[in-house]
């Protein structure tokens, strides 16, 4: 499975394993019928390529994996959660443009 530089689709079981990484993991919760999710997708893919040496990106379909959305009390998509060594570090409950998402990653993922 290719990981670095790509956004990997995961299920609930894989999610738990991936978020245990010592490298920061950014988890994007999305849904098929979500227009903001579709607009945010290319931004996430661009950041995954640009930040491949420091951050791993995973994507979770919130409709198919509702147990995870309930666990993290997510009320909408897109939602972004950042993890390091299995612990949630930060959360973002909307999609952003590339420059704003890049700043959010710098301030909330790479600083922790």
Descriptive report:
With about 110 residues, the protein is of the alpha/beta class. The chain is about 40% helix and about 25% strand. It has a five-stranded mixed β-sheet with strand order 1-3-2-4-5.
Descriptors:
112 residues; alpha/beta
Per-chain topology:
Elements lengths: L6 E3 L2 H7 L6 E6 L4 H16 L5 E6 L4 H6 L7 E6 L2 E6 L5 H13 L2
Summarize the structure in short.
This protein has 112 residues and is an alpha/beta fold. The chain contains 4 helices and 5 strands; from the N terminus they run βαβαβαββα.
Overall pLDDT score:
93
**How would a crystallographer describe the biggest sheet?**
5 strands, mixed
Q: Unreliable segments (pLDDT under 50, ≥5 consecutive)?
A: none
Number-wise, the strands total 5
Helical fraction equals 25-40%
- The strand line-up of the biggest sheet is 1-3-2-4-5
How would you describe the shape?
Answer: globular
As a whole number of angstroms, the C-alpha radius of gyration is 12 Å
Number of helices: 4
Alpha-beta content class: alpha/beta
Strand content: 15-25%
| Distance between the amino and carboxyl termini | 27 Å
Order of helices and strands: EHEHEHEEH
